[in-house]
């Protein structure tokens, strides 16, 4: 296994932490979705994401990250997940948009990695992600017809956070440090364009528009490169406790 540059380790940890929180958010809703199909889909996706996290954490440990720290022995602000996953959403529409945009952003970032260390793993994760993203898009297309105003509001909240997670618009092929190191073959600017273009195509012909979505930020000066976000928001300590199972330590197998 090759030694990754420091910015690449941070990049992969952000993807892994986002997948960790995706698994948690899917699990939260897997018994309260609008249909049995959605409950089953959420449970299956939560399991897939947990599997991806284990593989990514294994690679990060080989790059020097402490395993217990990765598993959750850290403060909430040390998690580097997409900001749209910080909080439990009040409605299923908001939940779906939050996980859909974060999941697609994380997959675009993972798929851009050019390191040979990811060749087989990216292929396997991609097989799972194909079904995750197709499911999201099918449900979003239905909601664009049935609940367009609610969907519009959810996208105006979530998509800027997903774009910030990908990186600043100014990070092109010449300035994006992960591309310049040779670790990735597509810049944040390229991935942002792909993310916006995907949803523009998905909602073409519907009353849902991306015109009201803030697609310009963040600037490099306001962006936290390690946590891939603007501001100091984070998950709640209760989420960290749930991820680490501290409330149920007495039942852990010896």
Overview of the structural elements:
The protein is 59% helix and 2% strand. It has a two-stranded antiparallel sheet. The protein has one domain (6-245): Ferritin (Up-down Bundle). It is mainly alpha-helical. A hairpin with a 4-residue loop joins strand 1 and strand 2.
Quick overview of this protein structure:
By secondary structure, the chain is mostly helical. It has helices at residues 6-29, 36-62, 67-71, 92-111, 119-146, 148-166, 177-180, 188-202, 237-244, and strands at 223-224, 229-230.
In CATH, the architecture is Up-down Bundle
Instruction: Name the assembly state.
Output: single chain
What is the 3D form?
A: globular
Which class in CATH terms?
Answer: Mainly Alpha
Helix segment tally: 9
Instruction: Quote the beta fraction.
Output: under 5%
Q: How many domain modules?
A: 1
State the total count of DSSP E strands: 2
Label the structural class. mainly alpha
How do the strands of the widest beta sheet line up side by side?
A: 1-2
Give, in order, the helices and strands. HHHHHHHHEEH
Termini separation: 33 Å
pLDDT averaged over residues: 91
Largest sheet: 2 strands, antiparallel
Level of helix content? 55-70%
CATH superfamily: Ferritin, core subunit, four-helix bundle
């Amino acid at each position: 296994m090759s030694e990754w540059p420091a910015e690449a380790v941070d990049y992969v940890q952000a993807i892994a932490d986002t997948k960790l929180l995706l698994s948690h958010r899917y699990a939260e809703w897997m018994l309260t979705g609008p249909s049995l199909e959605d409950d089953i889909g959420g449970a299956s996706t939560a399991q897939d994401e947990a599997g991806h996290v284990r593989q990514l954490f294994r690679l990060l440990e080989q790059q020097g990250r402490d395993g217990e720290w990765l598993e959750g022995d850290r403060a909430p602000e040390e998690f580097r997940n997409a900001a749209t996953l910080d909080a439990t959403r009040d409605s299923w529409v908001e939940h779906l948009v939050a996980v859909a945009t974060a999941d697609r952003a994380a997959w675009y970032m993972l798929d851009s990695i050019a390191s040979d260390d990811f060749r087989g793993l990216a292929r396997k994760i991609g097989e799972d992600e194909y079904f995750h993203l197709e499911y999201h898009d099918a449900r979003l297309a239905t909601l664009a017809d049935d609940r367009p105003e609610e969907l519009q509001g959810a996208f105006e909240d979530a998509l800027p956070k997903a774009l910030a997670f990908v990186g600043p618009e100014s990070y092109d092929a010449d300035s994006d440090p992960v591309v310049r190191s040779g670790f990735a073959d597509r810049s944040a600017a390229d991935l942002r364009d792909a993310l916006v273009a995907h949803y523009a195509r998905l909602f073409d012909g519907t009353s849902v528009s991306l015109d009201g979505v803030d697609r310009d930020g963040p600037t490099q000066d306001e962006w936290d490169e390690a946590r891939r976000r603007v501001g100091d928001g984070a998950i709640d300590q209760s989420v960290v406790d749930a991820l680490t199972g501290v409330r149920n330590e007495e039942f852990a197998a010896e």
